[in-house]
């Protein structure tokens, strides 16, 4: 049976999302920025929380866990390498592990960089990727704990997923990401198309999430550091992709 999702805003610009298995009734929250919007989404859908799948330890992804755990006695699944920084963890996971939400199965993909233990949850049957703060629509997370080389390798792992993968990320940063990406690749037609689409979505008050991996491969400059035109655009023609990625990321930090 097909997984159902419900996306909703939390805090200032975070997203919460629920993944529901209609076959068993199991429902997972991907991260829990705060408890109240998760509970409101559960009430609106009539779903009951059974699991929280945590991507990383930052407070804007974990702030609601303790309260939700008390109320629903749900299972908390979290990255092994950060479990000591996340409340109420029941199951620790790492690269290649499988997590079941009812009859749905997620594969765990480690993507160190934003934090060192960050994990993504990929549901291969439904082609759903929950990318936390690693990959954003037309952007990527800040490299806070890892190195640019580590983050680039992490992004390559996500880029290897199928083009029809729907990407749910942790924040609504698409508009700023597009404005920045256009400074590097103003002539990229895929980026121009995504910019027009996002403009329509934002004007209509709808989320720009989920995005699609095929579009990100063509339009997200952070996934394109190994394209010669991106290297040339930042004055690093012929240099290694990780170095190009580091320069693009540094420019975004100053943008
Ligand atoms: Zn974060």
Structural features:
6-stranded mixed beta sheet, 255 residues, globular, alpha/beta, binds zinc ion
What gross morphology would you assign?
globular
Total strands: 14
Distinct small-molecule ligands in the complex? zinc ion
H/E topology pattern: EEEHEHHEEEEEEEEHEHHEHHH
What percentage of the residues does DSSP assign to strands (E)? Answer: 15-25%
* Separation, N- and C-terminal Cα atoms: 44 Å
Give the structure's gist in a few sentences:
Helix content is 35%, strand content 22%. With 255 residues, the chain is of the alpha/beta class.
Q: Please, could you describe this protein's structure?
A:
Helix content is 35%, strand content 22%. The protein is built from nine helices and 14 strands. It has helices at 35-45, 59-62, 65-72, 148-159, 174-184, 189-203, 213-219, 228-233, 241-254, and strands spanning 4-10, 14-20, 27-30, 51-53, 75-79, 91-93, 98-101, 104-110, 119-123, 128-130, 135-136, 139-140, 166-168, 211-212. A six-stranded mixed sheet has the order 1-2-3-4-5-6, with helices on one face. The longest helix is centred in the C-terminal third of the chain and has 15 residues, at 189-203. The protein is globular and about 55 Å long. Zinc ion binds at residues 56, 58, 114, 133.
